[in-house]
Amino acid sequence: MPFQLVPKEEKFFDLFNNLAGHNLDAAKIFAELAQNWSSDSGVFARLQDIEHEADITTHEIYDRLNRTFVTPFDREDIHELGSEMDDIVDLIQSIASRMQLYRVDHSTEDMKQLADTLLHSVENVKKAIGELHNAEKSSRRVLDYCIEINRLENAGDRALEAALGRLFQGKPDPLEVIKWKEIYEGIEAAIDKCENVANVLESILVKQA
Questions:
Q1: 147 is in which domain, residue-wise?
Q2: Largest alpha-carbon pair distance within the chain?
Q3: What is the rounded average pLDDT for all residues in the chain?
């Protein structure tokens, strides 16, 4: 067994797992909202709590990064991974709040599909992060999750294009178009963030190979 004079700080893996859990909690709530929309739902407050908890976890990652001499992988990758994962929660909470602000009174099939794609993407992020601590043995598994995240991002792009196409059919109300375009693009942006996380994970694996 190789000897390390200064052990690597393993707490980062716990923090990333916690952050991935916040992502998943937020994505599940948002998917439920998409299926059963209610602007008076109490889950909006829960989303705000989750977003706050994610911020605390992200700041703890940054603080520990500043105080740790030997890290499990590159410091830049730790910072970027934390930032991209925190952005997922931020975007989900922001979309839900914007829908309340715009007084949206219903969901749509396109929103349900995008929210479902986002949920599956976040689930795969959670699985990939869970294997990161053992990347030397589980690199193939992590890569498989990353590949699935990339596939889901492509599916999200196609779903967004279809949603926007339907949005502009006929003679739509311009205000409704503006509202729903922002909502759809916001969900797809969160899916994109999942792909960004996958790209960081792939970079970490390449450097450790």
A1: 11-208
A2: 70
A3: 92
